[in-house]
Structures are given as structure tokens and as C-alpha cells.
Design a protein that fits this description.
mainly alpha, 5 helices
């Protein structure tokens, strides 16, 4: 399944507040973002940039499901990945938008 379809399905579930159903799609999206074998340079760059957002969205769903430990771990991963990126300002903005769909964990 492509990254676009995977995140679209996750978004549909999150919009309907079906966080448990969204998690497998978000985790699959994260896996797809990790796979850089044979990927064109521009797509590779996009995947690397989106990794923090994927962890942030997973954290938002876990937060809504009262899995505070899982939410915290994924937010820590998102932050660690952000710290390694040059221009994290636009990424933080994207992460906030993503989490607004779910819990707004970044905003609390």
C-alpha cells in the first residue's frame, strides 16, 4: 500500500475518532517512511522529513486511547528526529496540524 493511501486511511479513521483503527495505518505509514531502499533522492528527503510527524500522529492516537506511556515514547522519538533536522520549523507546524486531528497533544 502506498504512503498516500495509508495516511489517507489513517486520516479518515482519526476524523471519525476511531483511533484504534487508525493506529495500524499510522504504524504502516511510519514503516513506509523508514524504507529508503531504491527511493529517489527527492522522495527520500520527503520521507525523512515526515518521520517526526508520523511519530507525533501515533502519539496523538495513543494519547486518545489513554496509552500515556506509548504516547510519550512516540513524542520523544518525534522530538529526537526533529532535533536532527535542519529546518524543523515547518515540520513542527505540520506536526501540530496532524495532532489537531486527534488529541492536540502538541498543543497541551
Amino acid at each position: 500500500m502506498s504512503t498516500v493511501i495509508t495516511i489517507w486511511l489513517a486520516d479518515c479513521c482519526i476524523t471519525k475518532k476511531e483511533y484504534e483503527k487508525a493506529l495500524p495505518y499510522l504504524k504502516r505509514w511510519n514503516e513506509l517512511l523508514q524504507d529508503l531502499d531504491g527511493v529517489e533522492p527527492e522522495e527520500k528527503k520527503r520521507r525523512i522529513i515526515r518521520r517526526p510527524m508520523s511519530h507525533s500522529c501515533i502519539a496523538g492516537c495513543l494519547y486518545e486511547l489513554s496509552d500515556m506511556e506509548g504516547a510519550e515514547e512516540n513524542m520523544k522519538q518525534a522530538i529526537a528526529l526533529l532535533e536532527g533536522q535542519k529546518d524543523s520549523r515547518c515540520i513542527c507546524s505540520s506536526m501540530q496540524k496532524c495532532c489537531l486531528y486527534g488529541s492536540g497533544i502538541m498543543m497541551r
